[in-house]
Amino acid sequence: MNYSKIVHLSNGNSVWTRTEGEGPIKMLLLHGGPGMTHEYLEPFSKFIKNKPIQIIYYEQLGSYYSDQPDDASLWNIPRFCEEVEEVRKAWGLENFYLYGQSWGGMLAMEYATRYGSHLRGLIDSNMVDDMKDYEIYINKLRDSMDSEDVAFMKDKEAKNEIDDPHYEELVMKLYQSCICRLNPWPDAVNRSFDHTNEQVYVTLQGPTEFTITGSLKTWSIRDRLQHIKAPTLLLGGEYDSMNPDVIRSMTNRFPNAQSHICPQGSHFSMWDDNKDYFKAIDDFLKKVEKTKP
Amino acid sequence: MEMISICILLILSLVIIFSGGKSGNSITPFLVKGNTSGIGQGMIFAILCFAGFEGSSTIAGQSSNPKRSIPFAILSTIIGAAAFYLIVSYAQVIGFGVSNISKLASSSAPLDYLGVIYMGNSMATIIDFATLMSCFAAFLGSVNACAYMLFALSGKQYLPKSLSKFDLKLSSPKNAVNTTSIICILLYILIGIPFGPEEIYASLAEIGAISLLIVYLLVCLGTIFYFKNVSKEHFSVPRHLIVPIVGFVILLFPLWTNLYPVPKFPSNLYPYIVALWIIIGWVISLFNHPKNDLSSSLIDIKN
Q1: Which residues cross the membrane (chain B) (predicted)?
Q2: Confidence of residue A38 (pLDDT cuts 50, 70, 90)
Q3: Phi, psi values for residue A60, rounded to 5°
């Protein structure tokens, strides 16, 4: 049965959650951004049809369908981890799968290092384990654009004029090559972008995907991945803004992980390489379910 | 068509109310807090929401028992609409949460938002469809009401005679409907296209609401005058003196709060536009005394 639940957090705010599907496999979905919405994860509703899977969409605090307190001090990893734990308790989840995409993947890995005993499995989608790697790679992708365009963008960034219409046009051009390769973008992706909470995004990330000035700039979980015992699936895309080679190499840093890179996928592989992406998740769930918890 | 939209909104509202909304059911949405001028400014929207409740009176001439059916239609519209607005408004406030009221105020599609939160994406799509149907129904209703207004004014010879023509085959004042539709298209071309549909709606709604307030104020005064001087045998102190005076005083409040403090441009021009419109109507009525009511004779032909 599909229904919504408003989860009241201990800090006085509330977050929106909604479950779809029924079955013994429970999966909590963490969206990216930071500050985006669950909307771009809508393909999961189709994926779980006729499968014994119950998913829980969840809008993180600050995102469009949850409370949006105007308090930048709330946007940090430890507090978000506690928030995920409160959502888990509200739904009574034990032995569940935690899925996180992009920033959601970062949050899922962080959660797993703190509350890993509750996890049956972890799916880290389109997220590397070190921001420095990410910054180098995304800027490498940007530098592969027309040299005049790159010079123009860098000039605007130096002058702090990133609201320039041509600059925004070029950012979109880059995004269409590595964030979502479908043209036009699906409505759900557009809605997620339109509903992004800028305060959350800028505080943690920065003004764009490749100008990282937020508090995540120095983030790395590389030396802590060894503590994540839950079976883990690392998903990426060949055209992703996250280096697929780094995602492949992360497998060795987890005790029990496997990776899959979608050949046609970018950062939103659930859209631009939909079948391959969900087949990888399906195969992973079947594999884990065969083993005893 | 409108009934389907109403049912959809009621389903969503009841789901929100029974689920307790964001922070549970509460009396807080009914409590008055903050500045009282906000209530006056809000009343404009409430009056706009009720605008057209008296629309059935314009077709009194075509009903078989107008003295019975028209008061029933007007009263049931007021009571039904009030109950509906109360339920949906309360559901919206608790749906967003009392502490998130600014989010409700700034939301461009609050019911779509609540649809997603409480009943999922499918309900949001249904809500959007219901809103579209509702807009279309409201448009049809408004065009119809305007056309019958022109028809009635033309019947009284305040407007060109051709507008009082009633097409028996279509059962409609054809020329008045066509004229209203053409005026709508012209307004859209002149204001809607250059300034956007929101601007034309907001501007006309504001001008319309001020005009309506003045009409309702005059109706209050007119009621006292009519029953005191014309229909003396039916005069009743509570119904034809006290109630109109109370109504007059209540309606003065939103009118005043929308005139002072003087609103920003272009809203500051709207009271003058309304005043000019009233003067034009007054001048026309001074020089154009009605002789025969053509609409009545045409309806007689129909009957």
Answers
A1: 39-60, 72-94, 129-154, 175-195, 207-227, 239-257, 269-287
A2: very high
A3: -65, 155
pLDDT in tens, A234-263: 999 999 999 999 999 999 999 999 999 999
Which of A4-13, A106-115, A218-227, B156-165 comes out lowest in average pLDDT?
B156-165
A194 carries an active-site annotation: no
Residue of A6, A42, A45 lying closest to B22 (CB–CB): A6
Locate the chain B residue with the closest alpha carbon to A14: B22
User: CB contact, 8 Å: A194 with chain B?
Assistant: no
Average pLDDT, chain A: 95
Return the pLDDT at A292. Answer: 67
Token output for A100 = 């996180």
For an interface test with A, the pick among B15, B96, B121, B128 (most A C-beta atoms closer than 10 Å) comes out as B121
Residue B293: both structure tokens together: 């009511």
Q: Which residues of A touch B121 (CB under 8 A)?
A: 42, 45
Domain boundaries, chain B: 2-302
How many angstroms separate the CA atoms of B222 and B244, rounded? Answer: 9
Task: Report the domain count for chain A.
Answer: 1
Determine which one of A31, A195, A260, A267 is catalytic.
A267
* Closest by CA position to A219, among listed A66, A51, A80: A80
CATH of domain B2-302: 1.20.1740.10
CATH number at residue A97: 3.40.50.1820
CB–CB contact B121 A68 (8 Å)? no
pLDDT per residue as tens digits for the range A136-159 = 999 999 999 999 999 999 999 888
Of A4, A20, A42, the CB nearest to B118: A4
Tell me the C-alpha distance between A260 and B102, whole Å.
44
Q: Write the DSSP string, A147-190.
A: HHHHHHHHHHHHTT-TT-HHHHHHHHHHHHHHT---SSPPHHHH
pLDDT given for residue B18 in this prediction: 94
CA gap A54, B119 in Å, rounded: 17
Q: Which residues of chain B have pLDDT under 70?
A: 58, 289-303
Has A10 been annotated as catalytic?
no
Q: Are A18 and A56 in contact (CB under 8 A)?
A: yes
Domain range holding A120?
A: 3-290
A267 is catalytic: yes
